[in-house]
Automatic annotation (TrEMBL):
GO cellular-component term (any): bacterial-type flagellum
Species classification: Bacteria, Bacillati, Bacillota, Bacilli, Bacillales
Name of this protein: Flagellin
Organism of origin: Anoxybacillus flavithermus
Keyword Membrane carried by entry: no
Superkingdom field: Bacteria
Listed GO MF terms: structural molecule activity
Domain Flagellin N-terminal per the UniProt entry, residue ranges: 3-139
Amino acid sequence: MRINHNIQALNAYRNLAVNQSNTAKNLEKLSSGLRINRAADDAAGLAISEKMRSQIRGLEVAERNALDAISLIQTAEGALSSVHSMLQRMRELAVQASNDTNTANDRAALDQEIQQLKTEITRVATSTDFNKTALLDGTFGTKVDQDSSKTTALSVTGVANITTGGGLKAGTYTISWDGADNVYNCS
């Protein structure tokens, strides 16, 4: 009995298998658009690319969070702008009521408008919300830092203490009625 080996045929078959494997890997890279598809391609490179992908996804979420925060602030700003206008009108009415030429009926009418404005300010404060979260009723607080281990409280203490910027000097304003002198005081 005689066994024949065709070494040249075996070498050609081995080279064919290697080339088919390389072609399959190259087609996989071309079809996925990635240089590294699995750890066998480049273990260190895969670890680095996965870390970068994770960071990119985290930054995309942070961007969405920032856009949500901008929307929240714009909602609160709109409500505070409305409250600012009402407070300004209340100040004007208080100055008008302090004029000695007004009768008791005039002052009563001015007081009625001020009371309606106070009611409206309370309504705005209690009904202003973003994504079912009340913004101006004094209960709102959130994280405002990129590092989730740090917490910076952002809160509004209530309608009676609305702090504004822009046209008004920052601070706390109080509207009160002095019944003895029939005068509204804005301080």
